[in-house]
Please model this.
Amino acid sequence: MKSDYAVVINSLSIKIGNKQVLKNINLKIPKNTVFAIMGPSGSGKSTLLRSINKLWDLYPEVKVSGEIYVDGINVNEIDPHELRKIVGMVFQRPNPFPHMSIYDNVAIGPKLHKLYKKKEELDKIVEWALKKAYLWDEVKDDLKRKASKLSGGQQQRLCIARAIALKPKVLLMDEPTSALDIVSTKRLEENIVELKKDFTIVIVTHNPQQAARISDYVAFIYNGELIEVGPTKEVFTRPKHELTEKYVLGKV
Ligand SMILES: Nc1ncnc2c1ncn2[C@@H]1O[C@H](COP(=O)(O)OP(=O)(O)O)[C@@H](O)[C@H]1O
Ligand SMILES: [Mg+2]
Model:
């Protein structure tokens, strides 16, 4: 069933061991937006993000209840391999395959998912993804170079190219700029805003200023609870909850 929302989360609760890490989260993420999840360290942001692509399936101590839909599809009713195709992920630290070439880092997903018939088609996908990630101009002359030779900012853009080469519906990003310098952070933030034309971006940040700069909608998570969610401008200028106001002013 098609949905107006890229992601819908209904009554999501997550327990890790004996700890209730998320409590009854309800969220709707509109398509082609940058949706930020902000909150202090330890509030449950990464846990929430990881539930969208079911990374928790690999951890027996993590108990997940509730429902999550991606583009109208219940994530529990789809093959995990297929889910990873429609939901891409970029992590805190750039994690390209360091010994593989730039080309192969981007080509590996389309290869595994058999998204092309001829080599020329694969070349096109790689070029398209590297252009979307604003890396193409810097690497086009030597795509055989090892990924480890790139700078941190370039490696993170390579990880974005690798994720979007599969043309996912949703791109999850967990504090993607936290290991980058100011200049690389600014470039990546501009890149993220551009990417929403093609994808829906869900980005975790512990930095309210970053959420204010790049997101259309923002959810504020505190101690495992969704305190407030809404259009970013409203949440920052007229927060409904005192805790949100304190957080955006840097007081919690
Ligand atoms: N694998 C794990 N095992 C035990 N506790 C965990 C695990 N992952 C997260 N937690 C706990 O869940 C809470 C939320 O963590 P997390 O989602 O990483 O927060 P955030 O991303 O907002 O910093 C923390 O108290 C953390 O200690
Ligand atoms: Mg985190």
Summary: The chain has a mean pLDDT of 96. The longest helix spans residues 119-132. The pocket of magnesium ion (ligand 2) is lined by residues 45-46, 174, 204 (CB under 6 Å). Residues 30 and 57 are 25 Å apart (CA to CA).
